[in-house]
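A note from the maintainers: we've had questions about how concatenated examples are separated. There is no special marker in the raw files; a new sequence line simply starts the next protein. For clarity in this README we add a label.
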Amino acid sequence: MTKHDAARRAFLVRAAVGAGAVAGAGLVPGAHAQNPEHHKQADAPPQQHPMGGGHGAFFNHDDAATIAAFTERLMPGAPDKPGANDAGVLNYIDLALAGAYAELQDFYRRGLAQLDAYCRKSYNEPFQLLSAAQQDEVIAALEEGKAPGFTWPSAQEFFNTVRTHTMEGMFADPLYGGNREFAGWRLVGFPGAQVMFTPIDLQSKQAFTRAPMIGLQEAASSPKRKG
């Protein structure tokens, strides 16, 4: 892992710990930037695509590949350190846009279309086919508002929204489709829901290692345990 990757991971982890509530929060749509025409949705149903993990609720194949690559560069994985793809961030955002964040569907459609146009003009390739270094250059240009061709959402609005949703997908309750196998919670030492905390637990200064109570989606996707 490069110093750049490590710094990005460290930023998101610090932000998640600082936010506190993110780790146990559900889907609570915030005041994201919206176009006055955001209610105009495409008539065609979302395409199914072979991304696995229950994807295809909103994203088509190409958009899913772009979001998977983008979020992995925001939260890159490393040995024994889960990244966005390990935690199922794509699945979280996909399900959220088909449900609680449905008002952001047009925001994502337009943002992804502008991102694709910018990458093809600047690198002659879509985002998901760029090298990691090139993807980082694109992300930096968005973050700094230096990527031309973005109208609505602006480059910075798109970057900030995807980064926020990446954090949610890493650290929110697995019930909502991300934080697979409690990867994000384990990363920050968050204990999750427990039946109880013993006096020893409360007094211990060691990292809490007991697995959280399993969520509904996690239970549905896990192999059946023998009774």
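[label: protein 2]
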Amino acid sequence: MSQVLAEPIARLIEEFGKLPGIGPKSAQRLTFYLLRQPEEEARALAEAITDVKEKIQTCSTCFNLSTTDPCQLCADPRRDQTRICVVEEPLDILALEKTGVFHGLYHVLHGSFSPMEGILEDDLKIRELVARVGSGGVEEVIVATNATVEGEATANLIRARLRPTGVRVTRLAQGLPIGSDLEYADDYTLSRALEGRREY
């Protein structure tokens, strides 16, 4: 195919194909869609990608993605400083914030415990969570990992590591279907799961 296509087109198809959820056909469609668009739209997309790589950083407190450190959630004095909600990915924060139910702080693990896939405890931000809780002022840690085997394994690991601190550890209620990701749950289901959280 690379002999049929001009090199820049083939290269863009190849790069799109590296994105998660984008197969060869989708990569081709995206490439040819961009070719039909005005040049300024293609430049705007390229600039947006460059901006994300240049301006986004990880919050040193909660490990969310932000343009500032600390992020706007950690820096907001109106947030409940006594509660930390632990999530797997930054996208999970968006899902929980849309519910309008939780007003505390967050902690992003950047993955879930999965030895079979080579993701071990040290690859997650669990040690940083324990240090955060150990510094005082936290009354409750809400474990909001996904309702998957890996999410449950991660939740058990967090509970074990936090046990010596004496902090209250709760888990989202199982209104969330097993095997589902937080980012795909609707607002009502997430609200009910937060409100119905249980001791863990």
